[in-house]
Amino acid sequence: MRMKLYARRRLRNGIFVALSIAAAAFGIGWLALILGTLVIEGASGMSTTLFTLPTMPPGSSGGVSNAIFGSVVMSAIAVAVGTPVGILAGTWLAEYGRHARFAVFVRFVNDILLSAPSILVGLFIYELFVVHMGHFSAIAGAAALAVIVIPVVVRTTENMLLLVPNTLREAAAALGTPRNFVIRTVTWRAARAGIITGVLLAIARISGETAPLLFTAFGNQFPSSDLNAPIASLPVVIFQFANSAYDDWHRLAWAAALLITFAVLSLSILARIFESKRISQ
Amino acid sequence: MAYVVATMNQTHSCSAAVLKRFGRNEAIFRWFAFGAACLVLLVFAGIIAALCNGAWLALSTFGFGFLTSTAWNPVTGKFGALPAIYGTLMTSALAMIIAVPVGIGTAIFLTDLCPRPLRRPVGIAIELLAGIPSIIYGIWGLFVFAPFFQQSVEPRIINAFGDVPLLTNLFAGPPYGIGIFTASLILSIMVLPFISAVARDVFETVPPMLKEAAYGLGCTRWEVTWNVVLPFARTGVVGGSMLALGRALGETMAVTFVIGNAHAIPSSLFAPGTTISATIANEFTEAVGDLYVSSLIAIGLILFVITFLVLAAAQLMLRRLEARAGGRNQ
């Protein structure tokens, strides 16, 4: 009887261990499958014309150069606008408002924004920019991306600043240094690697964002560098081409998908390197 | 003596000027930082205001019936949110049913079972799933997964459960490949890393002494996990799952590709449906007429309310957990 109980417990434990291993294998299996197909399908569509030619009608071989340009321009503007705001807000939360009730509220709202559906950000910018301007534009797309950048940077900046030991701040303050001077020359410098990590993660996040661009930047078949006009972007081109019925467009979509994934994953790895630097310091 | 006093006065006035400048800089910096923090709130308020403003026309036209109507007819101008709400809740619920056990299992594997040298690479691999943009999941789901599912998996399931009561309704109809179940499965892969990351972090906060005591009593791994680790980590696991649910509810691109975009409430899991975000992504740029656009924004507002409630609950749970962990460390 006792042996039977023991055997049953061992069996139950064995099943549990097997299921846990299967769970981890489930996740890794999908990752391998997705990356595998992506590389195989994307590599067949890779060519130099991908980077040199703009999107063209189906049948004629085109590239996605205008979409790459649009993505880079909008991401650059979004980061240029979103990063300072995010760093300043994160600094306020960590340095000035640390325990204030208002800071608790801002933190709560920021974390909601961090995981809020990005398509709603698109609707917000649509109402704010597109309706008033009367047309889609690169500026509206960049604004939507900036709204996504801000909460990411706020969260990482605050987290990184909180890791800076208080003794550093106190030592600087004891020399009679004004607070903003302490922040700019001591705490920001100590947390620099972490803050850069946050910015990199934000870039990685927005370079794959599609939903907020659909009805802000909209897309443009032709090369355009006018910020006040609709502009193409890689994710939106993938969306349009993948939903089309043309094989050559599907190939381009796969190649563009490989491009984006490669960019996003290398950014994440870069961010990881910066993060490990912070730990070693 | 007079000379010394004079120099002292001089230095004093000089440093007063410096101090004044410092004070001014400090005030400017402080207000800029405060302004940036307020901007975060402003963005949030702006989203609410924009959604309410845009949704007003549809909500005032259809009233409360907007929530319960299944009509979606741009030609006659009749719109109802129920199919989209149903699809959103259904796909997210199914995704959570798959992702929560798998995510917890992955976290247990990473904290307890995985050989040490493999821990980091396996952990990074799971996190990479969260890094892949959702449009990639979409294109992969559309071109690779859905055809495979349609040809190899769905016919077998339909045949196997065709004669079982109850299940025959769930798995009825022709195998489309795209549909509610496919969308749920892809969603579950996408949110898996959110659950396993939070669960792993909480599992690591379980005091080793508790686990060792249980092992010392002769408990098996399963018994330690079920009776010691999980009760200790409950709040964190639920909080992480809510966070993942918030993501699943609002996920747009991956779902748009594989949901089928049919404004209907299908009884079969294999039939095409739609979600709020997929409807907006598909129809917004092509919507003609104020009422149509307003209806789309109105379902966006509904999505906002649902995700806000879920995410707020997740925040509160994880905050409480953080407070507890902080209290113990100090």
Q: Which descriptors apply to this entry?
A:
heterodimer; A: 281 residues; mainly alpha; flat; B: 330 residues; two-stranded antiparallel ribbon; 12 helices; 2 strands; 80% helix; disordered N terminus
Structure report:
The complex is a heterodimer of chains A (281) and B (330). In chain A, helix 3 runs parallel beside helix 6 and helix 7 runs antiparallel to helix 8. Chain A has 12 helices and no strands. By secondary structure, chain A is mostly helical. Helices cover 79% and strands 0% of the residues of chain A. With 330 residues, chain B is mostly helical. Chain B has 12 helices and 2 strands; from the N terminus they run H-H-E-E-H-H-H-H-H-H-H-H-H-H. Chain B has a two-stranded antiparallel ribbon. Chain B is flat, with a radius of gyration of 27 Å. Chain B starts with a helix and ends with a helix. The N terminus of chain B is likely disordered. The chains are: A mainly alpha (281), B mainly alpha (330). Chains A and B meet through helix 1, helix 3, helix 4, helix 5 and helix 6 of A and helix 1, helix 3, helix 4, helix 5 and helix 7 of B.
Summarize this, please?
The complex is a heterodimer of chains A (281) and B (330). Chain A has twelve helices and no strands.
Beta strand count of chain B: 2
Main sheet specs of chain B: 2 strands, antiparallel
Strand content of chain A: under 5%
Low-confidence spans of chain B: pLDDT under 50, at least 5 residues? 1-8
Using only CA atoms, what is the Rg of chain A?
Answer: 24 Å
Largest interface, counted by CB within 8 Å of the partner chain's CB? A-B, 91 and 88 residues
Order of helices and strands of chain A: HHHHHHHHHHHH
Which series of helices and strands of chain B comes N to C? Answer: HHEEHHHHHHHHHH
